[in-house]
Structures are given as structure tokens and as C-alpha cells.
Amino acid sequence: MADPTNLSDDERRLAELGYKQELSRNWSGFSNFAISFSIISILAGCFTTFGQAWNNGGPVAISWGWPIISIFILIIGFTMSELVSAYPTSGGIYWWAAKMGGARAGFYTGWLNLIGLLAVTASVAYGCATFVDLMLSTFSESWADGYSLGRVYLIFVALLAIAAVLNIFSGHLMAILNNISVWWHVAGAAFIILILVLVPDQHQSLDFVFTERLNNSGYADAKYWFLVLPLGFLLTQYTITGFDASAHLSEETEAASEGAAKGIWRSIAYSAIGGWIILLSFLFAVQDADGVTAGGGAVDVIFSQALPQGWHGTVLLISAAGQFFCTVACLTSASRMTFAFSRDGAIPGSRLWSKVSSSKVPANAVVFVAVIGALITLPALKGVGGIPVAFYAVTSVAVIGLYLSFAIPIWLRWRMGDDFEPGSWTLGRKYRWMNLVAVIEIAIISIYFIMPFTPAAIPGHEDFSWENVNYAPILTIGTLILLTIWWYASARNWFTGPKHTIDEAVVEAFDD
């Protein structure tokens, strides 16, 4: 039987929650912040989903939409910081839900979170593959002439494989890579901003950046404010996500009740500021707005307009490298969630996915996440005009899955009121309004992001095409239906929520 007197403070708290220390606890508070900052990655989301905001709202959706939505996301982050401080476990989101709402709440939350993490890993890796292809095309005409969605998909699979190998090698290596990633994102973003400020011969006016509206969605202009513009907010909501990684890595973080809590809200705040500045630099660098629209709203069109080939390629290189760091971090976070959820028997094949290697890494879970990511992105092999519409569907799935999983424990904490026992980092009485605002914002964006992005995605429309369909509602609503059937037909009989992996006598000793 484990001796409670020989445990560190972190191990003692983990034991109080029912778990023995299986993973290597060698992440600093900075490393914990670094993984969430790397997954948010302003060098990824700001680049890969720029077109969504450009086509659905235009500069207004970016210059005003980004800071406004960022404030709401920061409120969500504050509520989650309080929760991770109280319950610093790798299960994170689903563990909180099970603790406060019972096994069923934990079951639904865990699956929504896992689906979101699988989707965000896939979407980031695919975005990285796209920018690697763009970078190579910038330096090689023959490579550019051979473009195909199939080639991008192969690059995507190769990047997933490399990220998986790095993750399997060592958990400590991941901490080091994420520390490097922070500085790459800071220095890289600053360098890109300087390039876009100094190199172009001319820049757009303040009036264009802060008042120009665009509607390239196909919907009527009368629907701009209540449908088109909100669809453009996917840029912000998708980019600033994945910060629950700080919770999933809490069992590997020193002084986790403080470090993981600060990791969540700081990663959001710093990314929001940096992301806004870099997005403004994109807008000011636009040389021909009609040309950007003709290019599908892709940010690379702005670079090709404003920069000579050498500087253009440099920007793409910096972004692609940042996106690869993001891919590696996403895979780390998703594998830890898979490990924790499997540890409690919730995933078919749990014994396999919860197994830890000699390096104290859930290697099988890493492979599981990489393979699933490759499979769910297969629809991106099809596209319209060379643009994989399925990519935006995967980002929607990521946003909806992750944020719905956040909403459940946030709501449960609000419902507990003063019965909730906070950790060392707490909101105090501010939880009363912050938790409600967080849940309402999540409910609203979840409704918008399952809507068709264009009328051509609506069955029965004269321009309907399956390539345009946003399959996010099929995956999310379909998954919820399947989970409900599974829960009532089987899971409720065997899933009891988080299981203790430490001697029961030790847990009882802490409870006494």
C-alpha cells in the first residue's frame, strides 16, 4: 500500500482525487502554459481560417470580431482555470463533470471533449500540410504546377506520423518542444508583422480595416449581421481553442493547482493580443481586395500581392513551422485525454489506450489519435475549385465538440454555488456571472457553426453540391444520438465515472 507521508504535494492531491502518479511530472508551470499557447497558435488558426472571416464579414469580422469574441473566450478560460485548480487531473474536463454531475455528465462531456480534440488535431495538421505545400510552391514552379488535394493529404499524413513519433519518444521532449514553440510563436509573429509593415509599398487605410464589410457567402446582404458575420467568427473561436491542454497535462505539471490554472487564462490572453496584431497586419497589407476574394479569401493571396517571392516564402516558412509545433502539441493533449478517459474504461479497447510505455508516455493513445485524425479528414480529398470545404467542417466539429464539453462542467459548477470547494486559484463571487456568460456564449456559437456556410450547402438549393456541405451537424448531432443510445442501452450499467487507480486505503486516509 502506498504511504501518504512519502508523497509530494502534487502526488498527494492526485491521490486525494483517486489516482496514483503514473505519468512523469516534469513539466514546469511555463511548460504547461506553453502547450496551450502552442495549441492556440496564432501562426496556425489566424492563417488557415482567415478566409472564413474574410468571406463572412470581411475586415469588420476580423478587426472588431476578434477582440470582442476573445473577451468571451477569456471569460470561459477564467471559469476553467478555477475548475482545474480544484481538480488537477489528466481527465480534466470530463473528470470535473463527473465529479459535480455524476457518471452520465462525465460520459457525455468526455466524448464531446475527445471528439473535439481529435478534430482539432486533424484540422491543425491539415492546415500545416496546406502551408507546407504553399511554401514549396512559392519556391518551385514545378511543385506549384502539380498541386492537388491528394498531394496535400499525403503531406498531412506524413506530418501526423512525424508528430506521433516525437510524442512517443518522450514526454519530457514534448515539454522542451513546447517551450521552444512559445518563443518561435512570439519571435515569428513579430517578424511577420515587421515584414508586412516594412516591405509592401502601400497599405490599406484605417477606414478599410475597421469599417469594410464583405459578404462572399452567397447569402443575401440582408442577413449580414445575424447570419453572415457570426459565421466569420469561426476564425476567432477556432483559433483560440485547445487551451484545455493545460488541464490534460496537469498530472505532469509541478504545482499544478496554480500552474495549470494560470496556463489556461494566460495562454488565451496573450494569444488574443498577439493574434489581433498579426491579423491587423494582414488587413493593412491587402493590395487588391477583389483579388483576395477571387482567391477564396486565402491569406496567402495577400502575401503574394504584397511581398516579393523571398519574403513571401519566409512568411510561409515561419507559419508552417509554427503550425507543426501546434500539431505536435495537439497530439500530446488529445493523447492524454484518450489515456485518462480509457483509464476509466470509457473507450472501447481501453486497456490498450491506457497503457503507458517505459518512457511513461501513453504511446498507444498517441497512435490512436493520429490514425483517427487521418480517417476523419478523408473528405478533404474532395473540394470546390481546389479548396477543401471539408476543412472548415472539421474546424467546426473541433469548436463545437470542445466548447460543448467545456459548457457542461462550467454549468455544473455554477449550479453547485457555494458548495463548490475551490483550489488555490479561484474566481470568488465572480463565478456567478462569469459561468452564465460562458455557457450562453458557447450555446450561441454551437448553433451558428452547424449551419450551412453557403446556400449551396442546403439540399434543394439550385446550386446544391455535396462538396459544399458542412458535415459538422452530421458528426456532432449524430454522435450525440449514438452516445444517448449507447448510454441507455449499455454504458449506464458499467460506466461509473472516474475510477481509483491508487490503493483505496490511501484515498480513505486522505478523506479521514
From TrEMBL:
<dbReference type="GO" id="GO:0016020">
    <property type="term" value="C:membrane"/>
</dbReference>
<feature type="transmembrane region" description="Helical">
    <location>
        <begin position="224"/>
        <end position="243"/>
    </location>
</feature>
<feature type="transmembrane region" description="Helical">
    <location>
        <begin position="264"/>
        <end position="286"/>
    </location>
</feature>
<keyword id="KW-0813">Transport</keyword>
<feature type="transmembrane region" description="Helical">
    <location>
        <begin position="387"/>
        <end position="412"/>
    </location>
</feature>
<keyword id="KW-0472">Membrane</keyword>
<protein>
    <submittedName>
        <fullName>Amino acid permease</fullName>
    </submittedName>
</protein>
<feature type="transmembrane region" description="Helical">
    <location>
        <begin position="311"/>
        <end position="334"/>
    </location>
</feature>
<feature type="transmembrane region" description="Helical">
    <location>
        <begin position="30"/>
        <end position="54"/>
    </location>
</feature>
<feature type="transmembrane region" description="Helical">
    <location>
        <begin position="108"/>
        <end position="132"/>
    </location>
</feature>
<feature type="transmembrane region" description="Helical">
    <location>
        <begin position="361"/>
        <end position="381"/>
    </location>
</feature>
<dbReference type="InterPro" id="IPR002293">
    <property type="entry name" value="AA/rel_permease1"/>
</dbReference>
<keyword id="KW-1133">Transmembrane helix</keyword>
<feature type="transmembrane region" description="Helical">
    <location>
        <begin position="433"/>
        <end position="451"/>
    </location>
</feature>
<feature type="transmembrane region" description="Helical">
    <location>
        <begin position="152"/>
        <end position="170"/>
    </location>
</feature>
<feature type="transmembrane region" description="Helical">
    <location>
        <begin position="471"/>
        <end position="489"/>
    </location>
</feature>
<dbReference type="GO" id="GO:0022857">
    <property type="term" value="F:transmembrane transporter activity"/>
</dbReference>
<keyword id="KW-0812">Transmembrane</keyword>
<feature type="transmembrane region" description="Helical">
    <location>
        <begin position="182"/>
        <end position="199"/>
    </location>
</feature>
<feature type="transmembrane region" description="Helical">
    <location>
        <begin position="66"/>
        <end position="87"/>
    </location>
</feature>
<dbReference type="Pfam" id="PF13520">
    <property type="entry name" value="AA_permease_2"/>
</dbReference>
